[in-house]
Amino acid sequence: MSRRTRTMLLAALWFVPLLLFTSAFWFDWLSVWGALQLPSMTPHFADLRSITGGLATTKHGGDPLIANPHDPWNRPFNYPRIWLRLFSFLGINDGNLSIVGLAFCALYLICISWLIARSKRDLDASLLLLASLSLAPLLAFERGNNDLFVFFLVFLGCVAASSSLTPGLFAAAALLKIYPFAALLVEGIRRPLKRKVLPVLAGALVLGLLGWQWRDVYAIRHATPASPTLSYGALSLMAQVTGNLWLYVIAACALAGALTLGLTRFGGFQIEEQVRNSMAGEMFFIFGGVYVFTFLTGSNWDYRLIFLVPTLPLAFELARSPRQGPVGAVYVGMVILAENSLVFGSRTGTILCDFATLGVFFWILAILLEHSKGYLFKTAATPQRQASRAHVLDMGG
C-alpha cells in the first residue's frame, strides 16, 4: 500500500468521527446520529450514564444492580461493580463524562489505525476502514459504550510485545465485562503445553473472582434485556421466535447453515500453520472466540460486532487463496453486512443481521473446532510469539 493511500485512509478514519461528534455537540445530537439511521438517545453517551447514575444511586444507599433510579432511563446497572469504583476513584460524573466517551472512541480508533497501517494492500485497508466505521461501531460511539475500552484491552493483549502481558490484559477485560473470558480460554488452548500456565492461572483467578461475586453476575445477567432488534445472539433469536419474526428466524438459520456447509465442502476450513501463527491468525482466534462466546451466551447489542473487525485480516488472506477464496470473500461480505444491517430498517435489518451474524458464527465456530484438537494435544514446541510476529504475514499479507 502506498504511503499516500495509507495517509488518506488514516485521515478519513479520524476525520469522520471528528466531524460527527463536532456536528452532534454543536447542532443537535439526535438529528446528527438519526440521519445515519442510528437510534440515538439524549442525554448523550447514554450507556456511560448508567455508571454515573449507579454511583448516585449507591451514594443514596441503593443497589444499582437491583434498581437504578438515578439513571435517566431507570435502567438497572448491568456492569460489574468495578466500573463504579473506577468512576468514583477517577472523579467521573455527568459533568466530565463526555471526556470519557471521546477517550473510549479514540482508543478504538488507535487500534484500527494500527490495523490499517499494517495492511499491505489498498483493498484490505479500505475494507477495514469501511468495517470499522460501519453503523454498529458508530452506535458504540453514540452510546459511549465501554465495550470500546474492553476492545482496546483485548487488542492490546494481542499486540503486546511480551506474551506474558497478554493473560493479564485479557483478565482485566474479563473482570470489566465478563465475556472477554473467552479470550483467556482461546489463549490457553492455543499456547504450547509449557506456556499454558499464565493463561490458566489468569483464567482461574477470573473465575474465582466472578464466582465470589456470583450474585452480581446473576443480577447483571437478568438486568440485560434480550432484545429482538438491534442485537444478535442466541437469546436475541429466541426473543424473535416468541414474537412475530419466528418464520424469518428459521429461514435465516437455515440459509446461514446451508451457506456455511456449502463453503465448508467447497473450500474447507483448514488454515496453514504459518497463517495460524501470524498476527492475523492470532487476532482471528482471539476475537473470533470472543464473538462465538457472546453469541452463545446472550443477547448483545449490535455495537459489540466491533469484535469482528480484527478477524478480517485473516479473511483477506483466505480470499486470495486459490482454494479458499470464496470462503474468505463471503466471510468479509457477511461481516460488513452484519455491521451495517441497521441501514435497512427495523424488520429487514433484523432479518439481514440474523442471517449475517449466524453465518459468521457458524464460520468462526467451524474454524475453532477444526483447529482446537491440534492445539489441545500439541506437545511439540511451536514458533515463539515474537518469531511469528517477525515473519508474518503481517496484517495484510
Description:
The chain has 397 residues and is mainly alpha-helical. The protein folds into two domains: 143 residues, no CATH class; 168 residues, no CATH class. The protein is 69% helix and 1% strand. It contains 20 helices and two strands. The protein has a two-stranded antiparallel ribbon with strand order 1-2. The termini are close together. The C terminus is likely disordered.
Salient structural properties:
397 residues; mainly alpha; 2 domains; two-stranded antiparallel sheet; 20 helices; 2 strands; 69% helix; globular; disordered C terminus
Strand order within the widest sheet? 1-2
What's the helical proportion of residues? Answer: 55-70%
Structurally, how many domains make up the residues? 2
Q: Could you state the order of secondary-structure elements as H and E? A: HHHHHHHHHHHHEHHHHEHHHH
Structural class: mainly alpha
Low-confidence stretches: 379-397
Task: Provide the gyration radius in Å.
Answer: 21 Å
DSSP, total strands: 2
Q: Give the helix tally.
A: 20
Measure the end-to-end span: 11 Å
What is the averaged pLDDT score?
Answer: 86
Biggest sheet features: 2 strands, antiparallel
What is the 3D shape? Answer: globular
Please report which band the strand proportion falls in: under 5%, 5-15%, 15-25%, 25-35%, 35-45% or over 45%. under 5%
